[in-house]
């Protein structure tokens, strides 16, 4: 009878619908997994970056810092012998700078998520200080 056919059709549609739901649920799970993996990878990459303790927030054109290639927003992870483990205040950096006048200092910064090495030679120049950049401690 036509009624019986209609019921079969309804049952069939219900099965199709359920199958679709399951498919979507699986896709969703897979998508969530992909996102989780992408996040984990991003985290592991940032994990491999050393901890910065200060940030450059100004560089005067023509200064030793500028000539060395230091840029605003560079995050400093090593400044000569100073790193995140022994950094207490900007006084630490000032001391290193004074002791290294005329000698290249090895400075490591994080720029755009990558480690960049900069050779910085503190020296007298037209402006004030020996570097010509302004460094601010990062809030922990």
UniProtKB/TrEMBL annotation:
What SUPFAM superfamilies does its record include?
PDZ domain-like
Q: Which residues form the PDZ domain?
A: 21-113
Q: Which domain of life is it from?
A: Eukaryota
Signal peptide range equals: none
* UniProt keyword annotation of Chaperone present: yes
GO annotations of cellular component type: cytoplasm; nucleus; proteasome complex
Keywords from the named record: Chaperone, Coiled coil, Proteasome
Coiled-coil segments on the chain, per record: 9-46
Q: Which GO terms describe its biological process?
A: proteasome regulatory particle assembly
InterPro entries recorded for this chain?
Answer: PDZ (IPR001478), PDZ_6 (IPR041489), PDZ_sf (IPR036034), PSMD9 (IPR035269)
Say yes or no: keyword Chaperone present.
Answer: yes
Question: What Gene3D superfamilies does this protein's entry cite?
Answer: 2.30.42.10, 6.10.140.1710
**Family in the record:** Belongs to the proteasome subunit p27 family.
Its job: Acts as a chaperone during the assembly of the 26S proteasome, specifically of the base subcomplex of the PA700/19S regulatory complex (RC). During the base subcomplex assembly is part of an intermediate PSMD9:PSMC6:PSMC3 module, also known as modulator trimer complex; PSMD9 is released during the further base assembly process.
The entry describes its oligomerization and partners as: Interacts with PSMC3. Part of a transient complex (modulator) containing PSMD9, PSMC6 and PSMC3 formed during the assembly of the 26S proteasome.
* Protein name in the entry: 26S proteasome non-ATPase regulatory subunit 9
């Amino acid at each position: 009878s036509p009624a019986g056919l209609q019921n079969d059709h309804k049952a069939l549609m219900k099965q199709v619908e359920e199958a679709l739901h399951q498919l979507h649920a699986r896709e969703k799970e897979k998508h969530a997994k992909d996102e989780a993996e992408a996040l984990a990878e991003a985290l592991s990459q940032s994990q491999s970056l050393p901890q910065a303790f200060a940030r450059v927030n100004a560089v005067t054109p023509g200064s030793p810092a500028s000539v060395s290639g230091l840029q605003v927003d560079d995050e400093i992870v090593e400044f000569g012998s100073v790193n995140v483990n022994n950094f207490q205040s900007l006084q630490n950096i000032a001391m290193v700078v004074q002791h290294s006048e005329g000698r290249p200092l090895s400075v490591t910064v994080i720029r755009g998520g990558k480690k960049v090495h900069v050779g910085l030679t503190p020296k007298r120049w037209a402006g004030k200080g020996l570097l010509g950049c302004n460094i601010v401690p990062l809030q922990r």
